[in-house]
Known about the structure:
The N and C termini lie far apart (159 Å). The chain has six helices and seven strands, in the order αββββαββαβααα. By secondary structure, the chain is an alpha+beta fold. A five-stranded mixed β-sheet has the order 4-1-7-5-6. Strands 2-3 form a two-stranded antiparallel sheet. It has helices at residues 2-36, 76-87, 112-125, 160-174, 177-184, 198-205, and strands at residues 38-45, 48-51, 58-61, 64-71, 93-97, 107-109, 135-140. It has a domain at 25-93 and 113-144: Ubiquitin-like (UB roll). Strand 2 and strand 3 form a beta hairpin. The longest helix has 35 residues, at 2-36. Residues 53-138 form the PB1 domain. Residues 141-160 are annotated as: Disordered.
Amino acid sequence: xxxxxxxxxxxxxxxxxxxxxxxxxxxxxxxxxxxxxxxxxxxxxxxxxxxxxxxxxxxxxxxxxxxxxxxxxxxxxxxxxxxxxxxxxxxxxxxxxxxxxxxxxxxxxxxxxxxxxxxxxxxxxxxxxxxxxxxxxxxxxxxxxxxxxxxxxxxxxxxxxxxxxxxxxxxxxxxxxxxxxxxxxxxxxxxxxxxxxxxxxxxxxxxxxxxx
Length: 212
């Protein structure tokens, strides 16, 4: 019985040693991956993020997906240049998925500080893994430019009737009352007198009398 107990004790010790060795190997592999200084981006572009039927879970549909390996000390501007060259765009917007988040919580990467924080998040998530995680990246094109305003100038509203009436009123005010009294007594042409009453025609035919 004593021997059996000793055997069990040594067996437990061996299992404990195996766990320690496995954990040490995992840490060694992760540290070795970090020591190489290489990080990988799993880049998708040209597609869309859509809900999946029937559970509604978001997924990336269409486009292309490529792996981009760069040194972890690469500045953001150089990383952006490599991504623009990969997708063939003049401008690219980088949005990445954090290891613990879904596709509805992407983060924008626009500077060296953003890139360093992103790499740190993935390093923390890779501590218990044999192989480092690929950084999930989505490349977005620049938004389309706003529509240009119409160059056609609308024609101004017509003011001719108002101007004409204004001119007529001004002309009427500039004429003296004596002119109206003289003009109203001017003889009518003979060819228009037959439209009038005989008494009116006789009065129209009479010579005008001017008052001083």
